[in-house]
Amino acid sequence: MIPRHLLPRRWLQSCDRLLIVGSSFPYIEHYPKPGSSRAVQIDRDSARIGLRHPVECGLVGHAAPTLRALLALHRPNQDRRFVEAVQKSMRKWRQSLKEQGEQRETPMKPQVVGYELNKLLASDAIVTTDSSPTLRGPRATLICARRT
Q1: pTM of this prediction?
Q2: CB count, 10 Å around CB of 24?
Q3: What CATH number was assigned to the domain covering residues 4-73?
């Protein structure tokens, strides 16, 4: 079984198409292995194209208009297995976050703070945090705050 905090890495590594939009995500070990997926990157800075991961197509431009232009060319994939597997994993992950957030142990866990803070946030709130990779509370807040 893959630990829940590694699920996004597994999803990213197992994709067959990758769209990188305005990102210079430095953790290259999370990307799919070069050659295992087709990648397109959109960035307004041409120097960032292909910086962290090889891409077949680099598009220089602002994200919103470039994505709108790409969407007009997009043909949906009829095979929904990957999307459905990710959605199922996300539902389980969100349930796990809820269970962790509802714990009332002493000492209090950071997940509880994130869970309770999320109840007070506006639905369009954007939360940023700075913490060590081992602190899961802020991650829970960010995920739950999206309310998707």
Answers
A1: 0.64
A2: 12
A3: 3.40.50.1220
Domain ranges across the chain? 4-73, 81-145
Sequence-distant (≥ 6) Cβ neighbours of residue 32 within 8 angstroms: 12, 13, 14, 15, 18, 39, 53
Give, for all 148 residues of the chain, the pLDDT tens digit: 344 455 567 777 888 888 999 887 777 888 888 888 899 999 999 999 999 899 999 999 999 999 999 999 888 889 998 889 888 888 888 888 888 889 998 998 888 888 888 888 887 887 776 665 555 555 555 555 444 4
**Cα 115 from Cα 107, distance rounded (Å):** 16
User: Taking CA 104 as the corner, what is the angle to CA 100 and CA 109, rounded to the nearest 5 degrees?
Assistant: 55
